[in-house]
Amino acid sequence: MMTLKPLIMLKNRHFICMMITTLCCFYTFSVAAQGRKPNIIIIYADDLGYGDLSCYGAKKISTPNIDALAKKGLRFTNAHATSSTCTPSRFSMLTGKYAWRQKGTGIADGDAPLIIGTKTLTLPGMLKNVGYKTAVVGKWHLGLGDKNGPDWNNELAPGPLEIGFDYSFIIPATADRVPCVFVENHRVVGADPNDPIKVNYHNKVGNDPTGYENPEMLKIKADAQHNNTIVDGISRIGFMKGGKNARWRDGDIAATLTNKAINFIDQHQKQPFFLYFATHDIHVPRSPNAKFIGKSTMGLRGDAILQLDFTIGELVAHLKAKGLLENTMIVFSSDNGPALADGYEDEAVSKAIGHSAAGPFRGGKYSVYEGGTRVPFIVHWPGYVKTGLSSSLISQLDLFASFARLSDQKLRKQDAPDSFNLLSVLTGKAHSGRESLVEHAMNNSLSLIYKNWKYIEEGKQLYNLKNDPSESKNLNTAQPEILKELALKLEEIKQQ
Length: 496
What we know:
four-stranded antiparallel beta sheet, globular
């Protein structure tokens, strides 16, 4: 019967593995010492599944711009968000810390306070310490304001600027939640003191029509959760009044965010910059620009994927035109697995026949299975990243420590406690990725990946991901020793 080695030996092997990786980084990378630090851009898609891109096997849709990044970069097949939902994944990536270690990091309400402490060293804050100009453009969903939450008619602080970003232009939460406004730095864009914004997630405020009361006004039918205040013909979660001139048009969101990202690049092209570009696509409500509607065979969800691909093409083309592409490390990924039917009747399910949004994996957004957290992950940096394919186990958590190494910084013990320096893996110089990784699902269920094995707390499930990537054969009774060892290891990690 197959068994695992004692935990102490596992820990020693993992230490040796990480030391080799670190030494590899040390001798092959000292970019900061060689000249100007590279620019860094994280492109973070929303609800994009492992199988939603043609470079990951999709046949019903083509994503040529993302495919070009993969062709000229390194495409990972075993990369993970830390959670199968958005807020905790974003929290983990920016802090280098598992979100489940901190209370209040579940899916944030639209009027939630900032959930990252202002004394926490974040990824942008770490890069800012060595001269990077830092920006977040796009979806935020990590809260704004103090413990009382945001005051939409005054200064929205603390927020991104208080945790390491020099500039922010954000969707406060999600596009299916009110208020449907952009926030630039500390203020709602287009705010009018004579038309103050009021938001309530429990009771109706104002006289704006709602999806429940006025279904005839809707572009897209919605479920009960999403049938509150109507903005731009789409009903949302929560009630809103005021801010008429500040409200966005959904079809313009992608272009607005792309232009803001490009403007930031232009303003800081003569110094190293870090851009966290968190796109809204392909999260609901899917209402892409008119030039993309009907261009796919997969309804609005497919059209939104095409818009996402176009957006990335525009950003990369601009970098190239400015002569910045060669000195820019681009990481493309998604915050969690795919969601098809997620509140709106937009034919995402009926028109996905023949398309597997999660690829070969079971589950999707919200799920404890691989489809929930195994996501597209591409690294592009001409001359520094080896082109090809990597099956190394890696997490978005590891960007923090890896970028610290890239910029020649030493982290304190309390900084990014769950992040590993895998710079050599990100660049294809080494293949010794993580030994283990904890994944988190919406119901707070945790799972542990250890090499080819996956243990799921809920139901005490055990799968061999190498032989059974779709997690169809539960081996908990066939391999009780492995089940026990992984359960103990997960408990040990939880107690660290």
